[in-house]
Amino acid sequence: MSRRTGKPSYQLPTPDTGRRRTARLAVIVVAVGLAALLVGGVAGYAANRPDGVESAAADIRKAEVQRDSQQIVELTATARRLSKEVAPILTALRAVTSTGEQPGLEQARQWQQTMLRAAAPFADTPSGTTATNVARGGLRGAVEQASLAVETYLLAITGPPTQRAALTALAKRQAVQAEAAWSVAATQLDQVNIDAGQGHQHVYLEGGDGAATHDGAAEGSGG
Description:
Elements: H1 17-48, H2 52-95, H3 105-119, H4 130-158, H5 164-195
Helix pairs in contact: 2-3, 2-4, 2-5, 3-4, 4-5
């Protein structure tokens, strides 16, 4: 019996090396692609994720907005209250004449005390945004001008009779200027409220003779 032998090597099927090479290359390409996606995703997350500085800055901006909104509400309430106290004084001063019946010393002293109280809220004021600071500064300036008008009128009725007419006329002009300054500040405060989402808030002086007046918009609208 002859020994069985396998087929000669030249009769064995030739391995398909090209197909294996292609498959191996495909695996490498897929692996490289997955690695690139992973690296890109990590890089993108790291790039878009806010760092500590950005997060802290966002918190600061948020706190500033909240603080300014509170200041606007408080300033508007103060202006609304003061307008009811200051307006009658300025209206009376504008109506004074040097020859007609004039408010006496007692009345002028009461005005003086009222203006001192009106100035108190502006003695130590916080700092807010520029727009809010402008509104607050405008109101403070208007109150100071109104106080000057009252002081001038006090000089008119307590000083030499020969100076009464001139000082009375000066007090009247100062009262008109105070009303004009208040109207500008009230317009700025109205806009600040709108920008802060509070809508129109009108704190103009009733009966005032200022350049700016109520725009006719409903309270709280436009916010």
